[in-house]
Amino acid sequence: MAVTSTIENPALVRAERRSPSWSRLTGSDRLWAFAFATPYVLVFIAFVIYPICYGLWLGSDPATYRQLFVDPVYPSALLNTLIYLLIAVNLKLFLALLLSGFFMRRGWWTKTLLLVFILPWAVPAIPGYISIHWMLNGQWGLVNNVIWSLWQADGPPWLDNANLALGSVIYAHIWKWLPFWTIIFLAGRMAIPTELYEAAKVDGASSFDLFRHITVPMLASLYLVCTLLSSIWALGDFNAVRFISGGGPALSTHVLATLGIRNAFEIGNPALGMATVLSALPLLIPLVILLMRQLKKGQVQL
Amino acid sequence: MSLARRTRLKRSVAHLAAIILGAFLIMWSLLPLYNMVRVALQEKEDVFSSHVIPISPSLHSFWTVFDTSYWLLASFWGQMGNSLWIGIIVASLTLAIGTLTSFTIGRMRIRQGWMLTNAALMTYVIPMSFLAIPFYGIMGKYGMTDNSLAVIAVEVTFATPYAIFIFQQYGASIPLELDEAARIDGASPPQIYFLIYLPLMAPALVAIGTYALLLSWNEYLYAFLLLSTEGKITVPVGLGKFLNSDEAPWNYLMAAAIVYAIPPMVIYYSFRRKMSSGLTMGGVKG
User: Fold this and answer.
1) What are phi and psi for residue A134, nearest 5 degrees?
2) Which of A100, A112, B273, B274 makes an SS bond possible with A186, Cβ 3.0 to 4.6 Å?
3) pLDDT (tens digit, 9 = 90+) per residue, B127-156?
4) Chain A hits for B112, Cβ within 8 Å
């Protein structure tokens, strides 16, 4: 995701592109070109195309889908996936958009705060999630210890109640990924020419006007691309559910990604697992198509 | 109230709000990390208590991690080594395959370049976990389960697309005239690749190398599915095993988790300035 130019290279300036100099590849050059491209082509065929075909074949039996749809866990996993995508992703991105404005403030303490703020993102996911899992333990977790020491009351059993457990997963997701998206939006905001704001201020615009009429339109396509990309990644997210709630209590907080792995490896039915994953395609494909359309416009680069 | 006074009042209210928000953000960001440190500093029995601040903090758990004197930690340093060398191989292969591909697309400009770009884009938008089941099946067919090479293969596959995008973008700033001049002097494509392209791409190589290393260091699902022998697993898989053991020695688990989390944190904070925002970002997708 680059909103600004990618990496600074002081030695080189962007070259004027004239006619491509290698346009007529002949003889040995042609062979070299194909030789250079071969490793990636092989990786792509062996580890992307082949697994996709094999996966489609595994999940091609209609009977498996009948078995999947009568599984009582399936509807709740589907619902959880939708909730995860709609609430966790959108809440996170909206907060990130607002916070990126906060981090535009000048001064050393904002910069220091940003260093602390990106910690959750710098810490690998698994340790962070394991810590949150124990922190939310109903009996001995830090959160309920704090509640006890402040009010001498028992805190809720965060991970033993289906709704609270799903909420905990969403909390963990936002905690882990909020810094990443905030920094993306921060870079987006920094790319907006300051003259726009100065001119508007001269004309007497309030800070809400500035946000509404400059920031929002300037960041709109970036925000959309981020929403789509984040939704795609959240759809495939395995770790948060796995380590926060483990799909429990009573299999109530599975999402399609974790249920697929469970069906394939814990129940030992790869076809059923693959059907679970493939049943997420009606969600994935529209997201991918919308993303491709946005990327084609060329305002935002990956 | 005079206008000046009202502006001053408004400004101090905004300042106060910023301080409150800042304090909240610090607590929000640090709470799970504080919990990690808190548990790691406790003795095993004290973990099951209702204290918010450890009563008698000690570095005992960290020593246990360092001298691996607890059975679940016996192969911790071996696992660190596995994570490291898998990461280094993934980074090297990603750099090699990524630069070769972007060289043919961006410098040699083969006509089929758009197909390679689309292949990369397609891989990029497939959630990694969605291919886990067929990938495991295929590796099983080839007798590659419980083999680090399988993990390396899948991590390279998912790291390369982003590498190709970045190399393409960065390579666009290197004048094609350089290649042209070299070709007139009779340089062959490999010579141009090694002597002109790679040296000029150095900053992008560092960035993507770090990206691939971190992607591999943080990856859990494939390592968990594909590796099973105690001596072959990576650290996140080991931590996951810990979690499932009946004894659940939380202080050791947290101490090990902290040791494992430190190298990537050091990398993040030392590279933060060298790379502009975009680069590390995709860094660690879910």
Assistant:
1) -75, -35
2) A100
3) 999 999 999 999 999 888 899 999 999 999
4) 37
* Nearest CB to A33; choose among B110, B169, B239: B110
pLDDT score, position A138: 82
Long-range Cβ contact pairs of B101-104 (< 8 A, separation 24 or more): B101/A36, B101/A37, B101/A39, B101/A40, B101/B160, B101/B164, B101/B167, B102/B163, B102/B164, B102/B167, B102/B168, B102/B171, B103/A36, B103/B171, B103/B193, B103/B197, B104/A33, B104/A36, B104/A37
Q: SS3 breakdown of chain B: % helix, strand, coil, rounded to 5? A: 75, 0, 25
Q: From the list B29, B164, B264, which residue is nearest A124 (CB)?
A: B264
- Please check the confidence at residue B106 and state whether its pLDDT lies above 70: yes
Q: Which domains occur in chain A, in start order? A: 83-255+282-297 (1.10.3720.10)
Contact criterion met (CB < 8 Å) for A105 and B207? no
Q: How far is B63 from chain A (nearest CA, A)?
A: 19
What is the rounded CA–CA span in Å between residue B100 and residue B277? Answer: 25
Written as one letter, the residue type at B215 is L
- Amino acid identity for residue A296 in this structure: K
**Cβ count near A182 (within 10 Å):** 25
Coil, strand or helix at A208: helix
Q: Would you give the distance in Å from CA A86 to the centre of its chain?
A: 12
Count interface pairs A-B at CB distance under 8 A.
324
CA separation for the pair A190, A183 (Å, rounded):
10
Model pTM? 0.90
Over residues A91-142, the pLDDT tens digits come to: 999 999 999 999 998 888 888 999 999 999 999 999 999 999 999 988 888 8
What are the extents of the domains in chain B? 3-66, 71-284
> B26 and A8: CB-CB below 8 Å?
no
Distances (CA, A) of B220 to A90, A218, A250, B186: 25, 37, 24, 48
Give B153-196 pLDDT, tens digit per residue. Answer: 999 999 999 999 999 988 888 888 888 888 888 888 999 999 99
Residue B233 contacts residue B254 (beta carbons within 8 Å): no
Q: Distance between the two ends of chain B, CA-based, in angstroms?
A: 53
Q: Which CATH superfamily is domain B71-284 in?
A: MetI-like (1.10.3720.10)
Residue from the list B160, B177, B183 with its beta carbon closest to the beta carbon of A15: B177
Q: To probe the interface with A, which of B13, B129, B166 has the most A CB atoms within 10 Å?
A: B129
Predicted ipTM? 0.90
Task: Quote the CA–CA distance of A174 and A181 in Å, as a whole number.
Answer: 10
Q: Do A8 and B127 touch (CB under 8 A)?
A: no
